[in-house]
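Retry 2 of 3 after timeout on previous attempt. Resubmitting structure tokens to design endpoint.
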């Protein structure tokens, strides 16, 4: 009978099929005990386990040392806690090698919390996990299938603009592709590399946010030019930017049929204008949310950089030359700023100047969710969008001089829109009054959204996503809000409050209760917390302060040298990514 054992090769069957077989019986020769029914439970000794392994080794399945065949026999009598435990190798085995039921998975509460925490971190803005997928999978697949262009394929037409970083032309393709239509070509200087990178990222992550990017390459055949030019090609989206449309006396009616497809069934007036402006704002915030969700901050949002796409009937963002990709730290240099002062937020930097530039792409990627949350760089663009909203509401602020004057007034009011309103409203012109009336429609919900964007502190500004969920975009206005929408509005208002007063109150409270005995802060410690200048005359204290200053200086110098090194390393990295043509 024992000789038959090797023929039963399936996992654990040697023991299960022959319940009368004791574990210490030799398998090679027949045993006289075989015919005696055995009543006592079987225990598999190490020796038997080895034999069993040998037997099972020739068949399909795992040896008993892995399977714990004894456990299978006694499964029904095992205590629950022994039966179910999830270990990493166990999980891998379970998935890959079909473990027996006794090793089934159990998810413990700490395990689940850990897995959830890791997943949230990896998917939090700007998205470490999607970033890896994008860079190592999508980017390569895209390269295989996208259309490519050479210099000779392009017939240059009308010059459309010339900026500090390049010249833009309307062009057509010499390739016989009637569907392609007209194209836009930008011949750019060294910043073209960054712009190609950003446009490719956007095309994969949120194509509808920006003008349709076709191809970009380094053209290095032109004689006399050492570095060569970057050629960037887009689909021609349309003739007009938001700036062109806003400067027309007909605004916003000149946009109505473009975006809504028809003239609204309303008389000309505030309500109709409000509806058009709402639609434009929704499109702008949607485009911006796409960019921010993938970790890109534009840094140069202005009506001149928003094009109306005639094909898609929507506004799209253009000119990503000053953008920063905070997922991998490209074009992010904390102390460098390339901005249009008319639309720039007061902080001027998207990241704290204490944050050194990201060390290398993998490290920057790994740290990106933390840095994003610490700095909220997207709020820089939100300020600019807020100013565009303001210009749409107040016709007198649509000109450069009007906007510059407003910026001066707002600065004098400590960047507080409520103070600004109190200052200008009593002696407001007809134009200004019309703007306030428009924003005050529906219980002032437009004004509320506006001031949630135009704030001094970046942290107090709303995000593009939160702004899109604001009831300003609800068609029925405040009265039509559901219970959930009302709750969301209350939450939005709560997050918009200025908590600096609360912080002062907490510090005051800590001071009152602060005694050494109770373990709170003493007045002296709070003094340090508030960063009040140290008192003069204390030699020990002054020496300590000098040492701290020196330490800070050393760290700053180190950071700056790192920045410099990284900048050089990173520029090499971009260049390698971009196709070249001789
Ligand atoms: N995809 C597009 N479709 C249609 N027109 C476009 C497109 N891209 C750019 N343009 C036109 O070209 C002009 C210049 O583009 P862009 O702002 O990208 O160039 P730039 O060199 O950075 O200019 P500037 O420095 O003045 O901002 C735009 O104002 C717009 O009129």
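Retry 2 succeeded. Sequence:
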């Amino acid at each position: 009978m024992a000789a038959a054992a090797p023929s039963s090769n399936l996992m654990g069957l040697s023991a299960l099929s022959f319940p009368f077989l004791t574990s210490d019986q030799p398998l090679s020769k027949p045993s006289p005990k075989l015919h005696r029914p055995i009543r006592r439970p079987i225990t598999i000794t190490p020796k038997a386990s080895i034999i069993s392994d040998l037997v099972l080794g020739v068949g399909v399945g795992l040896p008993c040392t892995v399977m714990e065949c004894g456990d299978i026999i006694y499964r029904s009598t095992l205590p629950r806690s022994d039966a179910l435990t999830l270990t990493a190798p166990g999980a891998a085995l379970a998935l890959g090698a079909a473990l027996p039921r006794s090793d089934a998975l159990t998810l413990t509460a700490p395990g689940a919390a850990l897995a959830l925490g890791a997943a949230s971190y990896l998917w939090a803005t700007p998205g470490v996990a999607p970033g890896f997928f994008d860079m190592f999978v999508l980017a390569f697949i895209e390269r295989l299938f996208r259309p490519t262009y050479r210099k000779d394929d392009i017939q240059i037409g009308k010059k459309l603009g010339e900026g500090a970083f390049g010249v833009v032309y309307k062009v057509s393709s010499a390739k016989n592709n009637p569907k392609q239509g007209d194209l836009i070509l930008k011949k750019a200087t060294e910043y073209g590399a960054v712009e190609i990178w950003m446009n490719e990222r956007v095309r994969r992550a949120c194509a509808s946010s920006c003008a349709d990017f076709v191809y970009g390459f380094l053209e290095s055949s032109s004689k006399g030019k050492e570095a060569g030019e970057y050629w960037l090609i887009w689909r021609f989206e349309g003739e007009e930017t938001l700036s062109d449309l806003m400067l027309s006396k007909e605004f916003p009616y000149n946009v109505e049929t473009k975006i809504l497809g028809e003239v609204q069934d309303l008389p000309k007036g505030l309500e109709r204008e409000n509806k058009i402006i709402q639609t434009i704002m929704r499109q702008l915030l949607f485009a911006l949310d796409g960019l921010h969700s993938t970790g890109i901050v534009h840094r140069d949002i202005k009506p001149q950089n928003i094009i109306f796409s005639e094909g898609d009937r929507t506004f799209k963002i253009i000119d990503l030359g000053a953008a920063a990709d905070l997922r991998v730290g490209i074009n992010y240099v904390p102390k460098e700023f390339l901005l249009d002062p008319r639309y720039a937020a007061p902080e001027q930097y998207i990241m704290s100047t204490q944050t050194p530039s990201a060390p290398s792409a993998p490290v920057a990627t790994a740290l990106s969710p933390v840095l994003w949350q610490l700095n909220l760089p997207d709020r820089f663009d939100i300020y600019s969008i807020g100013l565009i909203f303001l210009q749409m509401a107040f016709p007198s602020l649509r000109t450069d001089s009007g906007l510059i004057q407003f910026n001066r007034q707002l600065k004098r009011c400590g960047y507080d829109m409520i103070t600004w309103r109190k200052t200008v409203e009593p002696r407001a012109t007809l134009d200004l009054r019309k703007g306030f009336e428009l924003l005050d429609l529906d219980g002032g919900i437009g004004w509320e959204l506006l001031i949630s964007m135009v704030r001094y502190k970046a942290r107090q500004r709303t995000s593009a996503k939160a702004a899109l969920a604001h009831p300003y975009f609800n068609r029925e206005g405040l009265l039509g809000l559901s219970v959930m929408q009302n709750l969301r509005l209350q939450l939005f208002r709560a997050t918009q409050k200025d908590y600096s007063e609360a912080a002062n109150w907490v510090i005051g409270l800590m001071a009152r209760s602060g005694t050494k005995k109770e373990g709170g802060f003493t007045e002296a410690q709070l003094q340090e917390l508030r960063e009040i200048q140290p008192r003069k005359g204390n030699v020990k204290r002054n020496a300590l302060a000098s040492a701290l200053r020196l330490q800070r200086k050393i760290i700053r110098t180190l950071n700056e040298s790192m920045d410099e090194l990284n900048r050089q390393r990173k520029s090499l990295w971009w260049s390698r990514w971009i196709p070249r043509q001789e």
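Attempt log closed. Residues 160-161, 163-166, 168, 184, 186, 211, 234, 236-238, 241, 304-305, 307, 318-319, 321 surround adenosine-5'-triphosphate (CB under 6 Å).
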